[in-house]
């Protein structure tokens, strides 16, 4: 990875990677956990209404229908990216590197081994599939997609959105 950019390619991804992508003109990031074989588990707003009149089609690759489910999702990388660039969140970076990097792109925290990260993300996804309570109700500041990804990586719900700028 480059010093100032976390841009990566799909070929470089490893199971357990915390990935993210810009959204809406680079106004925010969307985060998730790459679980392997082209799949990402990520957390979406639970309070957005589900519509049946949307023109957004079901994904031909993974079958994801963006009009039918909210909360913890398992989708292909393309559905996760929604046409935006792929970036990989860095962990265990030095304090100097942390200060140089854009807020919300890296952490000085150490993380779990990749098999534990994938297992935790998958367990949360499966719980959400069963009863809709996989990661709780979405909240922009204290229970969002970045909290989900950092929790799977470190056991801590951390988000740059909740920190003062």
TrEMBL record:
Transmembrane segments: none
LRAT domain segment(s): 20-161
InterPro entries from the UniProt entry: LRAT_dom, Papain-like_cys_pep_sf
Protein name: LRAT domain-containing protein
Organism: Prunus dulcis
Lineage, broadest ranks: Eukaryota, Viridiplantae, Streptophyta, Embryophyta, Tracheophyta
């Amino acid at each position: 990875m480059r010093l100032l950019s976390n841009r990566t390619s799909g070929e470089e991804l490893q199971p357990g990677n915390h990935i993210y992508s810009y959204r809406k003109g680079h106004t925010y990031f969307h985060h998730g956990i790459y679980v392997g074989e082209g799949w990402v588990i990520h957390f979406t707003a639970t309070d957005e209404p589900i519509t049946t009149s949307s023109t957004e089609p079901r994904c031909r690759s993974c079958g994801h229908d963006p009009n039918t489910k909210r909360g913890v999702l398992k989708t292909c990388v393309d559905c996760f990216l929604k046409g935006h660039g792929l970036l990989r969140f860095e962990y265990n970076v030095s304090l100097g590197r942390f200060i140089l990097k854009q807020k919300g792109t890296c952490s000085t925290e150490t993380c779990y081994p990749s098999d534990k990260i994938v297992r935790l993300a998958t367990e949360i996804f499966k719980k959400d599939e069963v009863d809709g309570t996989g990661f709780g109700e979405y909240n922009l500041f204290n229970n969002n997609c970045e909290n989900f990804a950092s929790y799977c990586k470190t056991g801590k719900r951390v988000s740059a959105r909740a920190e003062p700028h």
